[in-house]
Amino acid sequence: MEHSESRDSYTNRTLQIDFSWSKFKARISDRANLSDPVYIVDFKLHTTRCIIVNSATDNTTIGAGIIHFFSIHPDYELHGRKGTIKALKRWTTSYTHLSNAFAPSPDSPPVTMTWTSSSNFKTWDFICLDEQQMPVAKFSANLWAVKKVGDIEFMGPKSASVAARDEIVVTGLTLFCCMVARMNNLLTFFGAIFARTGPIKNPTVTTTQQNTAGPEDTNTADTQLQQEANNKKKLV
After folding, report:
1. Residue 8: Cβ within 10 Å count
2. What is the mean pLDDT of residues 94-102?
3. DSSP letter (8 states) at residue 186
4. CA separation (Å) from 4 to 70, 167, 169?
5. pLDDT tens digits, one per residue of 10-64
6. What angle is formed at CA 54 by the lines to CA 51 and CA 56, rounded to 5 degrees?
7. In terms of C-beta density within 10 A (0-12 exposed, 13-18 middle, 19 or more buried), how is residue 163 classed?
8. Other CB atoms closer than 10 Å to residue 28's CB: what's the count?
9. Spatial separation of the C-alpha atoms in residues 173 and 77, rounded to whole Å
10. pTM above 0.85?
11. If we measure between CA atoms, which residue out of 78, 21, 18 comes closest to residue 54?
């Protein structure tokens, strides 16, 4: 069976993450078929490129997560496209990233996704919200587990999208590694103090707005430039 067919055949599913301490790798499998993993994740915590997510079928690279020793804003790569998971706040788990997978259509500009978290004695949940603040995925990390370290639950209309699941797996694991690093690295404490937090800029939307400026906007700008030129002539 082709790789794309085997992955597209699933809808509204929960993935289970099983970690191997001897190999320092994780198998991510559908709960309905644990013997056939979907992703293989290499953890390389001694480098800034902390995770590499590969397809379990053909070993192609899906994406990677990059954390930094000082900055609290991790980066990621997804199918060759680079992005940033930017902190909205300094001292709470509140992050945002731009998503092409959750955009209304392939021609639409990327949309802004938000990550929040909650925790108890057993689990640490990372919840991804869409632009309407509706949950689309939840990554639950088992704090005391040795092998079954977490689950990723998908919900909403995009739960059947392979592109959306790839994005959630890469960004969710990257954010988790970032928060673990922040808890164990004093440098990120100072990084949080000096971090520029807030909403992430969407350059595609800004460019589109500039390109769709009407004739009235152009005429107004030309008039302002002409007035400035006339004022300079009067001064001379």
Report:
1. 12
2. 96
3. H
4. 38, 16, 17
5. 466 899 999 998 888 999 999 888 889 999 999 987 777 889 999 999 999 999 9
6. 135
7. middle
8. 21
9. 12
10. no
11. 78
